[in-house]
Specification:
By secondary structure, the protein is mainly alpha-helical. The protein has eight helices and three strands. The chain has a three-stranded antiparallel β-sheet with strand order 1-2-3. It starts with a helix and ends with a helix.
Length: 158
């Protein structure tokens, strides 16, 4: 963000308004596009959307879990919206993999992101699990039965 402000003032560059996706376009006074800036929140939501759209149940290596947690920790003002997005995905996911991946992301964030688990409303994940059509997602939340895929990853130390 500081880099955008520096570019915008001394050299006569202008910055267009941030669009709804958190992207700023840096332009010259003549309107030529010189670069762009993507907000941290937009990066987090893009990453989360890609994970939720995966057709398979993910089990991230340890380094990737910390990378994900670091990106989420960088935008504490988005934690509430992210929790709601993940819980809503659990309740309405078309595929079982998507619902389980949402729960997996919640678990990673609860474990590694400071203050994240405190922002989860009481009973929110349980109510989402009750609404889902996917039995394994229900079992994950209501009975604590993690999918075999994620347990295999933990045992390998990935």
């Amino acid at each position: 963000m500081a880099m955008v402000a520096q570019l915008a003032t001394p050299g006569g560059y202008g910055v267009t308004q941030t669009d709804s996706n958190g992207v700023k376009v840096i332009t010259s006074n003549e309107g030529e596009v010189l670069g762009f800036s993507v907000s941290q929140a937009a990066q987090v939501y893009t990453m989360v959307d890609r994970i939720l759209q995966s057709q398979r149940i993910l089990a991230l290596p340890l380094a990737d879990r910390y990378t994900l947690a670091g990106k989420v920790a960088a935008v504490p003002e988005e934690h509430g919206r992210l929790i709601e997005r993940l819980a809503s995905n659990v309740a309405t996911a078309f595929s079982e993999a998507s619902a389980l991946n949402a729960l997996y992301l919640v678990d990673i964030c609860k474990e590694l992101v400071p203050g994240f688990k405190d922002k989860i409303p009481a009973g929110r994940l349980e109510s989402a699990a009750e609404l889902t059509n996917h039995q394994r997602a229900k079992d994950y939340v209501l009975q604590g039965q993690r999918p075999d895929e994620s347990e295999d990853s933990d045992e390998k130390g990935e």
